[in-house]
Amino acid sequence: MSDPQLSRRDFLKVTRTILLTASGLLGLGGLIRFLSYQSQPPAKIEFDLGLASNYAPGSRTVLPDVPALLIRTEMGFSAISLVCTHLGCTVESMPEGFSCPCHGSRFDSQGKVMRGPAAKPLISLKVKTTEDGKLQLFTN
Amino acid sequence: MRRCIVIASTLLLLTMLAIAWWESRGVKPVALTPSLTGKVEYCLSCHADLPEISKSHPIKTFGCVLCHGGERLAMDADLAHSTMRGGKNPADFRVVEASCGGADCHSGTAQAQRDHIQRATTSIQATYAGAIAQIRFTYDAQTDLVARLGTTAIQDSQSTSGITSLAAFDPLQESNPAVQAFGQNCLICHLLVVPSQTGGRYDHFTGCAACHTLTQVANLTSTDTSTATRVHQLTTAISYTQCDTCHNRGNYDLRTMTFQPRLDNPTDRLHDYYQPIAQFTKCEYTLNCIDCHTRTEVMGDGNLYSSKFDIEYIRCKTCHGTLTELPNILTLTDPNDIAFRQALLNPVVTLQPEDDLLVTEKGEPLWNTRLLPDGTYELTGKSTGQVFQFKPVMGSGCEQDPEEQSSAACHKCHAVQR
Questions:
Q1: CA-based torsion, B216, B219, B224, B227: positive or negative
Q2: B18 and chain A in contact, CB less than 8 A
Q3: Per-residue b/e over A15-41, b at no fewer than 16 CB within 10 Å?
Q4: CA neighbours closer than 13 Å in the CB half-sphere of residue B110
Q5: Whole-angstrom Cα distance, residue B50 to residue B34?
């Protein structure tokens, strides 16, 4: 049998390989992290809302992540953006419409301006029902 | 040779580990993408502990950079702060247009009542034109009391007061030593100047923040000091203590042209509100300044003036009427009435359509008042929330001359003794 003891030369070779590999991996990891870093992640414009059957007829559901109000009537689904057209604050849904907590703009239940400073109505958003009965909301 | 390579490899790995360790102990970036700008910023990585500046400026909507400037992506403090506007105060008048301006913000139209910057920067509190004209007239540097100089040069072609521009007052250009001394010693409390004493009772910011960022305890007798030295907060609920960072601090000695601070040491509101020499009625010290003085009086109406008396117009009769006239009443019918906006910003009252409010002779609604069914009136303190009920002069035992409506005339009977 050959001598199982590692020679000094082989030991140095293995050590060198391990050190260089570890350094390389660390450097590569840093490089990947640097190159893949997104300082400006793209804004989400499409939202999956789950099954349409989860929303009862006559319901008005606030979707805080969008933000939007999903409305289901007998006619189908519609959605209104809850972003105030004045400066972009999130408006609050009330029984008689919408109210902006920042600067006091008021909108009726259809999003039409009732009181400034907002000058434009709340934006209507596109809602699509997929073939498998799921809802998708688009903000673009 | 192999040994050298191993040593070099070891050093390389140690260096890489040191870099990784150094990176791991640094501040973790916290990204915020305000809805108004849509551009990510990392200010919250270090400033997450700051309170939201106001309900009207939510961080998720405005972010930080829109108002403050700065390098939004920088994680190094010096670099991040290197391009901030106005240092810690973006509302300083030198930078306010870039920080707070915009048609939908604070430099919109007068019709929409969004011309705050235009009004504030031309106001007598910013230009100090009245005091400058008075002193120059007194020392024969000009022949009348018409303002020609202000703290900075300013143009206002739309001014309807007859004054469309002011040149910058420069004490070194004055020949009279007294006027020079006035410029050096007395121009210490207009809205562009940083107070010489910081951290004290007269400490305040410059520009809009001089009034709208509270630096003083809201009530002298209050044991709650949490309201003192507030920063990063904007409010329209401004206590008299904030007004007194400039007003009622003392007097100017015209012989020596130096400011003489008041020497009394008031321990209650009655004695604190005004200087000892002042005469006033109970409501003048029970209420706060802004409970009576309107936004136009305080922030100006967009015109350049020669004196504060050209813009101040609220009198006792504005709320109390006279023996022959009741005060003016406005019934809220316009949903865009400025009263609704003012009440929203400082929600001490909830206004409803068809509410009856007192209104000034210039048409400014006193949104914190209302006419009660029994013919009396109610005022809610804008800073304190205290509710006061008061009656009209008409039908009372008052023996006033309806033609005499200066405060001095009312003080004859209603002055409070201290």
A1: negative
A2: no
A3: ebeebbeebeebeeeeeeeeeeeeeee
A4: 10
A5: 16
Q: DSSP E strands: which ranges in B56-187?
A: 149-150, 154-155, 165-168
| pTM of structure | 0.84
CB B140 within 8 A of CB B176: yes
Nearest chain B Cα distance for residue A132, angstroms: 33
DSSP code of residue A129: E
CA distance A78 to chain B (A): 23
Facing residue for B335 by CB, picked from A41, A43, A114: A114
A101/B55 Cβ within 8 A: yes
Please tell me the predicted confidence (pLDDT) of residue B140: 93
List CB contacts of B297: < 8 A, sequence separation 6 or more: B311, B312, B313, B314
ipTM of the complex: 0.75
What Å distances lie between residue A122 and B4, B104, B106, CA to CA? 70, 16, 22
How far apart, in whole angstroms, are the C-alpha atoms of residue A46 and residue B10? 50
Please give the DSSP secondary-structure letter assigned to residue B236.
S
pLDDT at B283 over 60: yes
Interface contact flag, B17 A89, Cβ < 8 Å: no
C-alpha span between B333 and A50 (Å, rounded)? 44
Q: Which amino acid is at A85?
A: T
- B207 class by beta-carbon count within 10 Å (0-12 exposed, 13-18 middle, 19+ buried): buried
End-to-end CA distance of chain B: 95
Q: Is the pLDDT of residue B308 over 70?
A: yes
